[in-house]
Design goal:
globular, binds 6-O-phosphono-beta-D-glucopyranose
């Protein structure tokens, strides 16, 4: 942890009345308050367009806490938390708003500290205005002290990501920039490194000699949650696959880093991304599939189609489901397909990494009822279940040679331990200046290089998109990506 001099005196949340702030940032900050992990002197400034003052903001804050925090909070902790906040009203493009922000930061309660964190919880299209205005107001200085947190997606393709990065670098040093991918804050995601590199049992199997293929699924049953203005421009490929899922892929596929240091780890992740076989224009059809949800039924409730969601452009062909196949052309993985799939309004929420092992080389049971043995699987469930499972065959007790599949199941967390939200860990890291779990630009850049050919190809095919009924596991046609007839999506544990 950094010493008190380095810890920020203020956190400014741009977009404080938005979805991300209400759903994630405020509850996470509150939990850090409860755990006594927020620096005593930290003030939080909510910056937003709504025509509010401090008292309206605090009333809103109370509502957010009431809706989002399940446990009872001692009155004194709540009051202390609320007292950290003040509100600055402003348009992101308006220089006068930044003058008001400067005034708020000069309030006596901020003390002599000159270290501020700016959190951009806003739409990507609004980043440039905020960065430019922070710079013009001198709020990027002193260089090296203030920090800026940028949410994903970082750009909307390779070129715009490079431009955004250049723009950030004109005003901030790399040490000041925290590119956030909240999947890095999930404990089950961090556990991938521990699972792989702290157990000698696993490592010898983790390669093309033993692994048939890898599936990474991030299925959501929720829809777009009123975010059409962002989502309709982004789609599932930009929203989930280019960032969260690529990060999962790198953690599954990377080599052990020489040390658990931020750059050592990132170097290994970048090597994976650089080894992904580029998808040529002609190959896009065989490597990627997109679709959009039609109306359907989720857990007994009818839900509308994507096209009927408020704010979605008429005739939109934005994908809410994407499946893709990648090959990592290195010694460890050559020839092993990595199948990735994510979608909204699928049957249930389920994020997992499913690793199918190869069939045994010898068909020893050919002459018995076991002729067609199912392969072994290793299942690493990220959420909502947090578990590690291995499926192995054992003999079924009895006179005949039959087997049954046994799951060795290790729960990740004891029943009563609270699940930390990813944002709690990441906000604390920003406050403490620890960049280990944040994304370096070359990771972003190489991930864009991987998906850019797909995006470009799809951009020219805007007339038609496959659909799938909400509440299903997605369209059948996504099966066309599989290399072998015995490969199929693994739904559920
Ligand atoms: C966000 C996406 O980054 O991640 C959302 O913009 C998605 O569309 C969310 O729902 C999923 O996060 P989690 O933590 O619920 O898996």
């Amino acid at each position: 942890m950094s010493d008190a001099f380095d810890t920020p005196c203020a956190l400014v949340i741009f977009g404080a009345t938005g979805n991300l702030a209400s759903l994630k940032l405020i509850p996470a900050l509150f939990h850090l308050e409860q755990a006594g992990r927020l620096p005593d002197h930290l003030s939080i400034i909510a910056f937003s367009r709504r025509d509010w003052g401090d008292s309206e903001w605090r009333a809103h804050l109370r509502e957010v806490l009431r809706d989002r925090i399940s446990e009872q909070c001692p009155e004194a902790t709540c009051e202390h938390f609320l007292s950290r906040f003040s509100y600055v009203k402003g348009e992101f493009q308006d220089p006068a708003a930044y003058a008001r922000l400067l005034e708020a930061l000069a309030q006596p309660r901020m003390g002599a500290c000159s270290n501020v964190v700016f959190y951009l919880a806003i739409k990507p299209a609004e980043f440039p205005a905020v960065i430019k205005n922070l710079d013009e107001a001198g709020l990027n200085k002193p260089r090296g002290l203030h920090r800026i947190v940028v949410e994903k997606p970082f750009g909307e393709d390779l070129e715009s990501a490079q431009m955004l990065n250049q723009m950030l670098h004109r005003s901030f040093n790399e040490e000041q920039i925290f590119r956030i991918d909240h999947y890095q804050g999930k404990e089950t995601v961090q556990n991938l490194l521990v699972f792989r590199f702290a157990n000698t049992l696993i490592e010898p199997l983790w390669n093309r000699n033993f692994i048939d293929h890898v599936q990474i699924t991030v299925a959501e049953s929720i829809g777009i949650d009123g975010r059409a203005d962002y989502y309709d421009r982004a789609g599932a490929l930009r929203d989930m696959l280019q960032n969260h899922m690529m990060q999962l892929l790198t953690l599954v596929a990377m080599e052990p880093p020489p040390a658990l240091e931020p750059d050592a780890l990132r170097d290994e992740k970048v090597k994976v991304l650089r080894s992904i076989r580029p998808i040529t224009r002609k190959a896009v059809h065989a490597h990627a599939f997109r679709a959009q949800y039609a109306a359907g039924n989720i857990q007994g409730q009818s839900v509308p189609s994507y096209a009927q969601e408020a704010g979605v452009e008429k005739g939109s062909t934005t994908e809410t489901f994407v499946a893709a196949k990648f090959y990592i052309d290195n010694w460890r993985w050559r020839g092993v397909p990595f199948y990735l799939r994510t979608g909204k309004r699928l049957k249930e929420q389920q994020s997992m990494i499913a690793i199918r092992l190869r069939h045994p080389p010898q068909q020893l049971f050919r002459e018995t009822p076991l002729e067609t043995l199912e392969p072994n699987w290793i299942l690493l469930s990220i959420q909502p279940q947090e578990s590690m499972r291995m499926e192995i065959h054992v003999k079924q007790p009895g006179l005949d040679m039959n087997t049954r599949l046994l799951q060795l199941h290790a729960g990740f967390r004891p029943m009563n331990e609270r699940v930390l939200d990813a944002y709690e860990a990441l906000l604390l890291d920003v406050i403490e200046g620890d960049r280990t779990l944040f994304i370096r630009f070359d990771e972003v850049e190489w991930a864009w290089r991987v998906v850019d050919p797909i995006l470009k190809y799809w951009a020219q095919e805007r007339e038609f998109i496959h659909t799938y009924a909400a509440g299903t596991w997605g369209p059948q046609e996504a099966n066309r990506l599989f290399d072998a007839e015995d490969q199929e999506w693994r739904n559920g544990l």
